[in-house]
Amino acid sequence: MYPGLVHAHSGLRWIALVLLIAAVFTAIGKWQGRSGYTDGNRKLYLFTLISVHTQLILGFVLFFISPKVNFSLLSDKLYRFYSVEHTTGMLIAIILITIGYSRSKRATDAVTKQRLVSIFYGLGLLLILVSIPWPFRIIGANWF
Ligand code: HEM
Q1: What is the pLDDT of residues 122-140, one digit of tens each?
Q2: How far, in Å, CA of 142 to CA of 63, rounded?
Q3: Measured from the CA of 13, which atom of ligand 1 is nearest?
Q4: For residues 21-41, average pLDDT
Q5: Percent of the chain having pLDDT more than 70?
Q6: I need a surface site. Which of 4, 23, 93, 94 has the fewest CB within 10 A?
Q7: With the C-alpha atoms ordered 19, 51, 47, 108, is the resulting torsion angle positive or negative?
Q8: Alpha helix (H) ranges present in 34-109?
Q9: CA separation (Å) from 68 to 6, 40, 47, 88?
């Protein structure tokens, strides 16, 4: 079960990243161009939210079963990364994206809806990019 979960969590990063990048570029373009808010935009922002929430669920399970999470070994860079840095960074990013989605949903005018997604999803994307264990940064991490 553990290897399958790591593969799912690792591979799903690409779906979450593609959706997030599409969402942020769409929202910024529509915010700056003041060109409305379509049902397609709503679906894109919703699927993006679902993809990061799926990562949250998989990540939570991994947090309790992964040998790379160990709070007795925090002086080691690898254990500190997975136990603290990755988990905290991703949690904050997912909270930001969730706040952006719900505030945008409640907003009444199109420009405000797009602005909220641009800012909250944009900040979430940056935080996710710096919290991912990229193979060039973390020993043993994979591309998929
Ligand atoms: C959008 C959010 C997230 C993304 C894109 C993401 C991405 C990744 C990636 C790419 C890996 C490396 C897998 C590999 O080495 O092949 C990983 C590992 C891990 N992630 Fe996440 N993650 C996210 C959220 C979370 C959250 C919220 C948690 C905890 C609550 C978490 C816990 C873990 C753990 C414990 C591992 C180590 C698994 C292992 O190799 O044993 N992740 N994550």
Answers
A1: 999 999 999 999 999 999 9
A2: 17
A3: 5
A4: 97
A5: 100
A6: 4
A7: negative
A8: 39-65, 77-80, 87-106
A9: 11, 39, 29, 15
Distance CA 80, CA 119 (A): 29
Distance 11 CA to ligand 1 centre (A): 10
Residue 67, judged by CB atoms within 10 A of its CB (0-12, 13-18, 19+), counts as: exposed
- How far is ligand 1, taken at its centre, from the CA of residue 88, in Å? 11
pLDDT tens-digit readout, 1-11: 999 999 999 99
Angle at 125 between CA 73 and CA 25, to 5 degrees: 165
Provide the phi-psi class of 134: left if phi over 0, else alpha when psi is between -120 and 50, else beta. beta
- DSSP H/E element including 130: helix 110-131
The closest residue, in CA terms, to atom 9 on ligand 1 is: 10
